[in-house]
## 1
Amino acid sequence: MKRCLAVAMVLGVAAAGAQEHKFKKNYAQDGVYWAATWEEALAEAKARNVPIHVAVHKDN
Amino acid sequence: MESSTYTDKKYIEASRMWVNVACHNETGHEVDAMIAGKKVTVCERYWNIPCDAHSKGSSAARGKYTGITGVPCTVYADPEGKELSREVGGKSASELIKIQEKVLEKVPGDHVSVVEWNQAAKLLADADAAFEKGEWKKAVEGYTRVSKLPKKVLKEKGTAGLDKLETKGRELITEAKEKIATDKEAARKLLRKVADDFKPLACAKEAAAALKEIPADEKK
């Protein structure tokens, strides 16, 4: 059982690591710059002295 | 809003005066794409970030801003993260621009756009890299450009870089002077380098002056 679980986990990780996404041609070359993390957003807002715009969308 | 408001050219332009955080706990909109010649995996709905970023952003916002009962909801916060106001319901690009202009007025002082910020960050990164490699002319040029940018906070970063160069230049002058007794030519070479590469900094003038003070070699 343990062996089966280990194999399943390895396959799962490999599948996640190798995940391919659809390649989107002509992707927009400009857009709204979204912060990568909340901490980064806060640090940048302080440094630039600008407000933070938090856009809350879909939620379960 | 993701497919209309956030892709509106005027809205994109206005968004430069903000730090934008997307909070959306659903994932699965990722695509591979080329942005500025680089292959990236990004969320189709939030242009430059992967789904993981807006999903984590959702958890952060939910923890910080309570009472969000309906979506879409837009929370506006000051640079410290303190909520200033919020809007519930979908908004058009022009509506959001007007609301955001009013919120921006509530934050006093000089505001730095993300374009200016990124430009300065690139110049500073290049100047820092040049400094580490000992490419002094390039570092002087980079930090000088940043020190001439219009915004005070950016100017200060450029000035700090030039101060760092002044310190380095003086260290090299000291090193050169220590060599005079044993190797005048090496001392001259180093001082010439500081005098040339660190222009127009004060240390460059000091190096030029120190160069003149080295006694001439005795004739054999």
## 2
Amino acid sequence: MLGEGILKGLGETARNFAGSFVSAERLTTVQYPEERAPVIEDTRDFPFLVYDGSDWEAGLRCVACQICEKECPPKCIYIVKSTDKKPDYVGKPQIYPTRFDIDISVCMSCQICVEVCPFEAIKMDTQFELSTTDRFGGLLYDRKELARSNEYYHSIHPTEAAEVDARLAEEKAKSDAKAKAAAAAAAAKAAGTVAAATPSAAKPVTPASPPSTTVDPAEGETKG
Amino acid sequence: MIEKADQIFVLLAHWLVSFLPAELQHAAMVLLGVVGIIATFPAIFALTVLLERKGLGRMQNRYGPNRVGPYGLFQPIADGLKSLTKEDIVPFSADAVVHLLAPVLLVVVVFMGYAVLPIGRNMTLVNMDAGLLFFFAIGASTELSVFMAGWSSRNKYSLLGAMRAVAQMISYEVPMLMSSVAVVMMTGSLSLNKIVEAQNQYTFGLPHWYVFTPWGFAGFILFAIAATAETNRSPFDLPEGESELVAGYFTEYSGFKFALFFLGEYVGMMGVSGLGATLFLGGYSAPLQALDFVPSWIWFFAKIMLAMCVFIWIRGTLPRLRQDQLMNFAWKFVLPLTLLNLVVAGMWRFMGDGWMRWVVCSAILLAAYVLMARVGMRKERFGPRSYRYAE
Amino acid sequence: MSVVFYLIAGLTVAGALAAVLLKNTVHCALALTVAFAGLALMFLELDAQFAGFAQILIYIGAVAILVVFAILLTRGSETPRDGVFGRKPFIGLVTAAGIFAVLGWAVLHSGWALPDAGGAQTAAPTVTVMQIGNALMDRYVLPLEIVALLLTAALIGAVIVAMHEKAGGAMNPHLSPLTGYLLVAALLFAIGLAGALTRRNAILVLIGIELMLNAANLNLIAFWRYGPHPEALTGMMFAIFSIAVAAAEAAVGLGLVISIHRHTKTTDLDAMNRMKG
């Protein structure tokens, strides 16, 4: 009650003032735009589409299932499905999106599209310096602008990308194993039936296992 | 040489005025003095605003403005240009004449206060016999300007802010007057020049400033508190707090008029700092006899800048006081202490020289301070809250 | 009679006229402040420094603020329905004009043996604050204590009243300095009287009373300055005490107005002409 609190406060402020000239912990300002604050890995700003390999159109993981379009709260995603099928990265014919527009002036970075995508095709980017002088379309990104490679995804979210790749590899391994088992069963069946007919007919039945994806750096490794 | 440096402005003024015929010379001297004041103090105002923003920033672990010019030194120029070129909005139902007159009155009144301050040796603009009374009389007119600003905006929040501000200023005017009356009593004159001359003596190289006596020290602290409240400065800035009442009584002001209010507030702050320096810190006298060679006006400005730094420091440290806490503080703590200070000053005079009077006066003041702090500022004990709902 | 005197007198009279004639009560209060400032300047012209600064400090710094607060607390800033003047303003105006005529005639036909010889001013008395202080403690200590008691009583009284209840020669055409000041004082008195007699709002009546008190103060200081014994300080002391008493009276009067407003919800004097309530 006698004013010693005021004096203590004055001392603290004086220490702040003097300390701000000498120590960095008393002056934590980052002088933007000359310096940037250190980037945190889990930053999320606006979505982008992931593609495997080097051809963005062929390697695009998105199959235009339109789940993200339905789940997006402000409805900033606009997808037009294709009518034909093109071979995807592994060669399998897949539907692809002919139009995939995101209006990032509407997008609220809620990440729901990322959470609901079953194909790990849409992920969150970390860029925020996206202002433009074009009022009427500068912030409407189309398919080409949204597509970024998997390497880019690894560079911005290494842990997440590693997990995603591991999961994809695991699923692929499982589906490969299943296919191999099915093929072996079919071959065995065919061998059983053809053994009575011609032994050479079993040969061409070996299923053409897709060439193993060499691009996955985490192939075979399950990172914990 | 030292004499010349000390009296340089006086000599300059005399030289300039010597070109005029004799009957105009006195008026010309006064006019030159006025021009000097109007040129100097707004420049110091610009410096102070910059100092405040950068100083507050450093205290709050951030840089202040540092983009405009090296280390942000041209920020006041940018601010000035901004306020000059902003659109001047006057609300439709506001009283346009009074709305315009309020900042004008404030600025005129605070500048008039500088007329009696002794800025250096022989550098008082008007050497009045009742100089201190003039300063306080003029200072009382600032309340009227605040009221006019709040009322003319026809805005409930402005009016509320203005009422609070006027109540606060009136409450703290009495302690300010009383703490200076102790100085007047000891000097025997209301003239500020005589007060400074009384403090301009040295014993063993230490000056006779009033702040170095028990009653002077207490008086200085009380005067500082009252001056902070008079100029609506943190922690007493409820009337203009941004988070409380939008901007209080200057909500409806924009552009140049707002800049005038801002100017008036800071120039007023410098005026009361100058008065405090004159009354308690010896005005233009040097702190040690050895430092007498430094010109007197440099000491005066140094003391004003020191006071501004303390104002900024306190602003960066203390939270705002609520209106009722503010008023309680004024009437139940500061005013009784100032009255007691008067009595102690009288005792000091009549006890004669010696160590005895130091001990007795300090003891009385300390005891009173502790007593008032315990008794006068006790928290009210509230009963459990009861609510009444509308039926 | 210097130009300065005419300017200041013009300002004061204009302020006083505006104070009793304007519709908006707050404007009236602000015009009253201008009148007070003009009077302070006149005191300074009459070399009564202390009285002039006391006038600014007390009247502008305290009484004007009191009046303004009272106006705000009684919603006086709204124009009353039936106009600003009372039902029969003519009688008040005639009375005031008559009083001004008598006072003016008396001033101009002054038969007093005062040294107002053609324009030459008497030497300005050098009054220091030290002398005033000595006089207050010496000759005028009794009035000082009585005024102190009066102010305390007024302070307590105002608080209690306003608290919630469980608040007029041969005709001398030459206008010597003294005559000029006396004429201005008479004019101010008449304006104040007219305002007090003709306006509806109770606060305007108080404004008129303040103007009349100020006019009397101006008379006191003018007579002190041009009188036979300015070193006796009598006129100045009387004026200072009068300022103090006027401040006390303003406080109590405005407290009364607020208390009445709380009860009758109006400050219109024409509506308060019955004891019923």
